[in-house]
Protein: Glycoside hydrolase family 3 C-terminal domain-containing protein
Organism: Lysobacter auxotrophicus
Amino acid sequence: MNQLSDADRTSRTGLALALWLALCAPAAGAYAADTKAGDRPWLDTSRSFEQRAADLVSRMTLDEKAAQMQNAAPAIDRLGVPAYDWWNEALHGVARAGGATVFPQAIGMAATFDVPLMAQISEAISDEARAKHHEFARQGQRGRYQGLTFWSPNINIFRDPRWGRGQETYGEDPYLTARMGVTFVKGLQGDDPKYRKLDATAKHFAVHSGPEADRHTFDAKPTERDLRETYLPAFEVLVKEGDVDSVMGAYNRVYGESASASRFLLQDVLRKEWGFKGYVVSDCWAIVDIWKHHKIVATPEEAAALAVKNGTQLDCGDTYKPSLPVAVRKGLISEAEVDAALTQLFTARMRLGMFDPPSQVRWAGIPYSANQSPEHDALSRKVAQESIVLLKNDGVLPLSREIKRIAVVGPTADDTMALLGNYYGTPAAPVTILQGIRDAAPNAQVVHARGVDLVEGRDDPAANPLIEPQYLRPEAGSTERGLRGEYFRNRDLAGKPTLVRVDPQIGFRWDRGSPTDNLMARGEAQGGQDVPADDFSIRWSGQLLPPVSGTYQLEAAGNDGVRLYIDDKPVIDHWQNSDRLHAEHANVELEAGRAYRIRLEYYERERDAGVRLAWRMPGAKPPFEEAVQAARDSDVVVFVGGLTGDVEGEEMTVNYPGFAGGDRTDIRLPATQRKLLEALHATGKPVVMVLTAGSAIGVDWAKQNLPAIVMAWYPGQRGGNAVADVLFGDANPAGRLPVTFYKADEKLPAFDDYAMRNRTYRYFQGEPLYPFGHGLSYTTFAYSGLKLDRASASPTQPVKATVQVKNTGKRAGDEVVQLYLHPLAPRRERATKELRGFQRVHLQPGESREVSFTITPAKDLRTWDEARDAYAVDPGAYEVQVGASSADVRVKQAFDVTP
């Protein structure tokens, strides 16, 4: 499925480019129609990008140069250089820039094991990124999350399931990570011989995967074998094969050096060994860590000089601007070294076409309609379908269309955050799993009961249902339903509102981008009605019409401040900053037949924004009892639980039992959910578990007691539809685990130990709960006839392996054919087996297909010889294993590697 046909792309691009040239070219960048290249030779497109960049840099003052080496680079009006912020995110869709298509989280993309699909995803993301950038530029907006340099993908190895940011990666295997990562990079950067579509960034280079709480202080010291065989290979592939234009350093030290100022990593390995030609950006405020936390040097100017000299050209932060001029004056670094670093940065901007006429830049003509297009929406659903892993099925799935009553129970069933993970954009119309099931089963009675909070001690802001539109009026006598919303460009509800409209329900989650963009996507905002990304406030007012008399639990939730008034009397007042969506509750007596004046006020300070107005009606059972009763009254129970990005993620400040700083201290399902699951199971009704999470969960009890378990990850904007497609059999699941699922009581190695021993399927000595590569289907597949075209080979001789795969079931489906290499008599400590090939193939019932792989020993069997300080291929016998997972080997055959 592709997002735009070639004919559509040509037609729409031509129209958009014509409009661009007629109306907007001067606003797009430094180029303007009345500018002569002779006056400004850096605009002369006949010269190389490097020559032009060097010329431009040579005309800057030292202070101007230093300011251009920070992510928020200011304009230099006298040189016609527009402001530019290098910080942009595109992990699974354009993030933090308002409305954008949200694909499944990166770990879910990896679970597809589908490289061609990844190419479609990254092409769609880069189309939206280009379209959004030029729309922002036309409006004179050049801030953060509005540029063309994207700090994705995250190709760190997910070595430990406790890491909260593991969801951002492609899993635990270097080969899978490399194949998915290089495809993502190529899709982002495009295939134009002259201009980059975007700049992708491989991060975080190189030994970085938790703990989050220690990332500014710890020193990673893996053996060089682990470094070379686990932590570096994906980066090497992205540099050499993907031609990635940017690499981001990490916060921590590696062998005593800051990863963002490491001569070993950034000079010896990245540039000298691998031939990297692009630029390096620090992780955000990592330059501060060099002197303040790592204490490698004593002052900011020493840190800035060290970082630039060792190869970090761009500072995400605010150290270079004030400190580099001081460092030059003190003799810590020469201005020539600053010039060389900055020239690399401007070469990148030149290559993105920022200083050239739009008519010459192929990518400038992508129309804004590509953003959140129907084609991308459909692609998001397809990716989610392919990402879903069927962990267990005793025959209860797929669900029958004849089922009359379905209970959908659990804390993430109707939670949009369960779709998004972290680093996300604002989807136009996200479909929760509850809504997806309702859409897929229109003839069944679908009853929802949340049951419990996500984790113990967390007052979830989605605990009560939103107040529905039929109980709200914007004013007395109005036929409209909802409340009157007044949107202000400040935190104080002051002055004239910039936007006034009626909102049917108050339930919003905005990413770090502007709510305006979300409004524009629905065609509601007009000129002058913009709302900023930060520092805004909203007042909703009107009438509340309770349907029954009694005590209502009213809920107001906000990120940041909220306060609620009934008949002008305050009932909830939380007018303060909050780093998450925080819920407050109040019990209020209301009478049916009366109209109450209601007013909800909200302000947003910075970062993510959200607000909810909800209630629980009189007589409603306590949530836990309500859920159990719903199960008793149903024919089947779909439990939807697990985690969300509110509890696992990057360096969080909130902690709960089992969680610390965004990481996990307990890999089990949270205790609140375990208790509910056991109660649901005790009703005797079949319970299907659907898990949302970005990491492995120890669901031993569920594996022993429940008939079906589905891993949905964070499935993106159409995740609810995709889950329902799998539950009802409209899609045949074929996702595979990109990580090992360990048993709940498995004694994992120390989290801060970066040795790979007993980690991941490559080194784990125990029995997993579910192995790497595992995933079931609604059909069956048989393997036969594995053949190798040679019985022995030298390190440079390729070995071709072919195998027959047949669909032996009664319905069409995909099989992920996986090839592993296993040393039969290893001469040194090494992985027990390693993935070295995979293909996702679609087969009709009874259909067979020959699947082939090519093994090159010098690449696929190399290990690090620490004595020789080089890679080597050990001669001896190796086994080719082909099957459906790392533990489900169907056919195998040995061959010899000769000296």
Observations:
- The chain has four domains: 6-363, 382-462+622-763, 468-505+535-606, 781-897.
- The first helix runs from residue 6 to 28.
- The two ends are 46 Å apart (CA to CA).
